[in-house]
Specification:
By secondary structure, the chain is an alpha/beta fold. The protein has six helices and five strands. The protein has one domain: Uracil-DNA glycosylase-like domain (Uracil-DNA Glycosylase, subunit E, 3-Layer(aba) Sandwich). It has helices spanning 4-9, 34-39, 50-56, 95-112, 122-128, 163-177; strands at residues 25-29, 77-81, 116-120, 137-143, 146-151. It has a five-stranded mixed beta sheet with strand order 2-1-3-5-4. The longest helix is centred in the middle third of the chain and has 18 residues, at 95-112. The N and C termini lie far apart (42 Å). This is TDG/mug DNA glycosylase family protein.
């Protein structure tokens, strides 16, 4: 558990992507929180429901700890962020940062070629991709041959979506991403 000083020191820190070529799904957070930057693990803050939603939706065979993130590419999964720098809250990001992050994200997706890009955060997706009326689910937006799927933000601060509904939405993506055979 990071100390208050370690969390403060993590502000602005960059968190490396967990990525490989030809993933089934590249999950994309808004940006790392201080807890994630301090620990070096994506979606690491206690109360974040990303890892439980992955498990309950069937993406992982068991509940993974954020420290096991390097196991994801072996399951065809990866993690990146729209904006790389860590902040205490996503609302510290400017629209310009999100738009710039969206351009960087598109370049990364074209390089790595995942089958699906799953952006976890509707508001960030709307700004980064210039789609103010976008909703949760499969988007008409594509990046090259990569299909884009918008998921709710799994942060514990997102009270509009509880874990069962998050897992159900993640499960819709999982069914779409399953390879035949």
């Amino acid at each position: 558990m990071p100390t208050k000083a370690e969390l403060a020191a993590a502000h602005g820190r960059l968190l490396p992507d967990v990525i490989a070529e030809d993933l089934d799904v590249l999950f994309c957070g808004i940006n790392p929180g201080l807890w994630s930057a301090a620990t070096g693990h994506h979606f690491a803050r206690p109360g974040n429901r990303f890892w439980p939603a992955l498990w309950r939706s069937g993406f992982t065979p068991r509940l993974f700890d954020p420290s096991e993130q390097e196991s994801l590419p072996g399951l065809g999964l990866g993690i990146t962020n729209v904006v790389a720098r860590a902040t205490a809250r996503a609302d510290e990001l400017t629209d310009e940062e999100l738009v710039d992050g969206g351009r960087r994200l598109r370049s990364s997706v074209l390089r790595w070629r995942p089958r699906f890009l799953a952006v976890v955060g509707l508001g960030a997706f709307r700004v980064a991709f210039g789609k103010p009326r976008a909703g949760v689910g499969l988007s008409a937006e594509t990046v090259g041959e990569t299909q884009v799927w918008v998921l709710p933000n799994p942060s514990g601060l997102n009270a509009h979506w509880q874990l069962p509904e998050l897992a159900e939405e993640f499960g819709r993506l999982r069914k779409a991403a399953l390879r035949p055979g």
